[in-house]
Design goal:
- This protein has 86 residues and is an alpha+beta fold.
- It has a single domain (25-85), classed as 2-Layer Sandwich (Trypsin Inhibitor V, Chain A), CATH 3.30.10.10.
- The protein has one helix at 37-47, and strands at residues 51-56, 69-74, 80-85.
- Strands 1-2-3 form a three-stranded mixed sheet, covered by helices on one side.
- A hairpin with a 5-residue loop joins strand 2 (69-74) and strand 3 (80-85).
- The protein starts with 36 loop residues before the first helix and ends with a strand.
- The model is unreliable at 5-9 (pLDDT under 50).
């Protein structure tokens, strides 16, 4: 059989996660902080988001809106300049 879908035992199963909607208001305190992995994880948790994406100022990014994603915008020095959901 030909096709793109696979239902065999070789495909990894991923369990759905509960919806985790981003709220960027509680994490605005982190503006000016470095993007150390421990800081990013703390920001992700406090924002309630499921995932985060780190972008440099002016870096092209997909424009799709994801209510579970926090965008962490940094400058060339690696300091956080903006925190936005989406």
């Amino acid at each position: 059989m030909a096709g793109c879908a696979s239902t065999g035992s070789n495909s990894p199963a991923t369990a759905p996660h509960p919806l985790q909607i981003c709220n960027d208001k509680p994490v605005q305190f982190y503006l000016g902080h470095n993007t150390a992995p421990s800081t990013l994880e703390m920001i992700r948790q406090k924002s309630g988001s499921y995932m985060l994406r780190v972008l440099r100022e002016g870096q092209p990014a997909t424009m799709d809106y994801n209510q579970e994603r926090l965008n962490v915008i940094t400058n060339e020095a690696g300091k956080i300049t903006a925190l936005r959901c989406g």
